[in-house]
Amino acid sequence: MKTDLSFFKVFQHSDEYFEMLSNKEFSRKYVLKQVLFILLFTFLYGIVMGSYNGFLQSMVTAVKVPCLIFLSLIICFPALFVIQYMIGSTMTVYQMANVILSGFIVFSTIALSFAPIVIFFMITSDNYAFLKLLHVAIFTFSGLFAIKTIINGLSFSCEKKNIYPKLGMKIFKIWIIIFAFVSSQLAWNLRPFVGSRDLPFELFRVRESNFYVAVIQSVGDIFRPDKDSGQENRDKLKE
Fold this sequence. Notes:
By secondary structure, the protein is an all-alpha fold. It contains nine helices and no strands. The model is unreliable at 227-239 (pLDDT under 50).
């Protein structure tokens, strides 16, 4: 059986791809295909992400990363669809879902392509704070391309198919900010993803602080001198 990889046209032939998705005959079957490939790519990225802290953490993170993506979409997608429908969108649920999922095809593919770089830093460095920030950076970078892809899809539906209102573009930009807050908060509640080697394995950490404070603390940890090294230097000065 030949694997259908036609949705990778979104990378270089986006108009052709969105034209295909606008066809109601294709839109239903492509929802499932895109979901399956996003699941696969995020699962593989999760394996790499969690492997810093051993096999068990890698298996758990391989499940958590796809859950993070799809739970965030399940929470946020209904509001987007209902509001767009109210302002005049004639896109079906499947058509809009496909446009959104096309962005996450781009997101998951780009994120997975960074896996060799993540592995390189895991082998050559043991800085837990740096690795956490590296994953945040990869998700942010991949997310920017995902947003661009979704905007291109909605623009195509607006300008060439006339099934999506211009006002919807502004609403989507507000929605993506809400989505970012929801997904970051959800990620904080699903942690750990990388897992510190200094702490025992836990499926979930205790709820405390928040995602943004953790990022700031991780930045500080990278530049903070190692306590043991500092004490060693002071001992040398005494001698």
